[in-house]
Amino acid sequence: MRTAADYTFHHAAPEADDFYQEVIDGLSQSSRFIPPKYFYDHAGSRLFESICEQPEYYPTRIETVLLQQYASEIAALAGDGCYVIEPGSGSCEKVRFLLDALRPAVYVPLDISCTHLKKAAACIANDFPWLDVHAVCTDITAELSLPFIPEKTRSMMFYPGSSIGNFDPQDAVDFLACLAKVTGSGGDLLIGVDLKKDKGILDAAYNDASGVTAAFNLNLLQRINRELVGDFDMEAFAHHAFYNSARGRIEMHLISDRKQTVRVDGHTFDFNAGDSIHTESSYKYTIYEFQALARQAGFSPCKVWTDSKDLFSLHYLRAV
Ligand code: AVI
């Protein structure tokens, strides 16, 4: 038997300049926007784990119950000895609920945060000594290339947490189409999708009383200060999140509370009081809307599970 923390590591992370360029470009536009993938530095990844434990943030709890409850049904659909590939694997917590039932040949976690990924992969390898773990540090929104996966391997993409909601719908279709390309025809996708529901429940989930989501949002400015020689005053921006019913999405913003000028590596950006930096959208779907989106990406629905209050859904899809 192999030793603890024995796993294979592949590094395909983007150049540091991507963060720099996307921040400068995003802050230079009239509608300022920084892509949410940059939330997840080491501090941001930890804050996200803490969000998942907040009582108002229901998706993680409900999805975990669904995974536990339906693990054997999922395993029956996936078949024996498949490759499980998890884009944006974070702390690799949710896959644990499937591994004993699924008994995959290989588990491939993919994440942009290398430090976090190495730790999570080592823990999985330690806790499931029979499992072959190939961790890949990469930007999953760039073209995915996994050359170590043999052709004709049966694979199941695992994309929990409703992270698909963080893409605009057309980008979500394009991303799912990339996953379909990686699995090939007959490959599977198990994906968690947050459902449309009462606005009060959604607003509370992104404005937890302990202020963890606010800290997560503001950490983006701290990250710019730390890594890109920025001088954002953390006291001068506030977290703002709300459900935009017309667009079917939560929007997260950082709002300037005064007129101010911010510098990032010699570039200057002027803000008036109330000006926003849009940091994240989190789209919510009905089951029917999501299945239509998945079809556009080349997947056909096999099965969907939901909780008794229809707050969250877990879809099993197959690439055509
Ligand atoms: C990762 N993603 C699905 C989360 C969401 O709900 O959109 C990120 C998040 N942002 C604030 N809270 C959680």
Written overview of the protein:
The protein contains 9 helices and 14 strands. It is of the alpha/beta class and 320 residues long. It is globular and about 60 Å long. The protein starts with 7 loop residues before the first strand and ends with a strand. Bound molecules: N,N-dimethyl-L-histidine. N,N-dimethyl-L-histidine (AVI) is lined by residues 51, 161-163, 165-166, 206, 213, 280, 282. N,N-dimethyl-L-histidine is lined by residues 51, 161-163, 165-166, 206, 213, 280, 282.
Tell me the span between the first and last alpha carbons. Answer: 38 Å
Unreliable sequence segments: none
Q: What oligomeric state do these chains adopt?
A: single chain
SSE order = EHEHHEHEHEEHEHHEEEEEHEE
Count helical runs: 9
Total DSSP E strands: 14
| Overall spatial form | globular
Task: Please list the strands of the largest sheet in the order they lie side by side.
Answer: 1-5-4-3-6-7-14-13
Question: Which SSEs are present, and which pair or pack?
Answer:
Layout: E1 8-12, H1 17-28, E2 32-33, H2 42-51, H3 58-78, E3 83-87, H4 96-102, E4 106-111, H5 114-127, E5 132-138, E6 155-159, H6 169-183, E7 188-194, H7 199-205, H8 212-228, E8 237-244, E9 249-256, E10 260-264, E11 267-271, E12 276-283, H9 287-296, E13 299-306, E14 312-319
Parallel strand pairs: 1-5, 2-12, 3-4, 3-6, 4-5, 6-7
Antiparallel strand pairs: 7-14, 8-9, 9-12, 10-11, 13-14
Bound molecules: N,N-dimethyl-L-histidine.
